[in-house]
Design brief:
seven-stranded parallel beta sheet, about 20% strand, Leucine-rich repeat, LRR (right-handed beta-alpha superhelix), 2 domains, mainly beta, about 5% helix, elongated
Length: about 260
């Protein structure tokens, strides 16, 4: 059974209890339900696939229970994009999840913390995952299968202070503008990402408060894009000589570093 679009709804609550046998939900299912404040998805315990724009632009949505969605292997594009009042989200039930699409949490302005540590089968995160959000804390532990992070992953997250990707030991590619214009960011840890080969353009563009960058253990890094540390003034970079040589030839303006520690 496949469910397609439900017409725009203004009711505050929605009963999905009759959908317990549904395996696939099409695109645009509950998007633009402007008055929707909360939703219980517990009856969707057999759903294996959800299309684009599932709850996109539900601007008054504050809470959502995703615990029943244990069979989902992919979160498609704009899953909760533009849910401006969404305060928390728990991905811990997504034990089979392998891929996150584009713009999944873009413009979720009230979302201050997100925990991805349970997604140990996750391989790919698409573009604009938390673009222009106000996330203060993102926990990325034990994503041991993660290989690809798309463009603008945390771009313009002006409240984020630290991020640790050191447990992403199979990470190979980071797209453009990964942490661009994260004005509160002080520290990033990429140590132990030994399979990392490519970092895109504008990686830490205008992260003006950045003090520590740890690239130790990135022994296979081959390419770093333009404007890597544009307008950054660091106290410390930890890396090997090969990475230092790459950094030295990248076109960058307004970049300074007090101490480069070779490991």
């Amino acid at each position: 059974m496949k469910i397609k679009k439900i017409k725009k709804i203004k009711r505050i609550k929605i009963d999905l209890s009759s959908l317990s046998k549904v395996k696939k939900i099409g695109y645009d299912f509950l998007s633009s339900c402007k008055e929707l404040t909360t939703i219980d998805l517990k009856s969707l315990n057999n759903v294996e696939e959800i299309g684009d724009y599932f709850l996109s632009s539900c601007e008054k949505l504050t809470t959502i229970d995703l615990q029943s969605l244990k069979k989902i292997k992919k979160i498609n594009n704009k899953f909760l994009e533009n849910c401006k009042k969404l305060q928390n989200i728990n991905f811990s039930s997504f034990i089979e999840l392998e891929e996150i699409g584009n713009k999944v949490l873009e413009h979720c302005d009230a979302l201050t913390e997100i925990n991805l540590s349970s997604l140990n089968k996750l391989i790919k995160i698409g573009n604009d995952f938390l673009f222009n959000c106000k996330t203060k804390n993102i926990i990325i532990n034990d994503l041991i299968k993660l290989e690809f992070i798309g463009n603008d992953f945390l771009c313009q997250n002006t409240y984020l202070e630290k991020i640790d990707l050191s447990s992403c030991i199979n990470l190979k590619n980071i797209g453009d503008s990964f942490l661009s214009k994260c004005y509160s960011l002080t520290e990033i840890n990429l140590s132990n990402c030994k399979y990392l080969e490519n970092i895109g353009d504008d990686f830490l563009f205008q992260c003006t408060k950045l003090k520590i960058l740890d690239l130790s253990g990135c022994i296979n890094l081959k390419k770093i894009g333009d404007r890597f540390l544009y307008d950054c003034h660091l106290n410390k970079i930890i890396c090997n000589k090969k990475i230092k040589d790459i950094i030295d030839i990248i076109p960058m303006k307004k970049y300074t570093c007090t101490n480069i520690i070779l490991k």
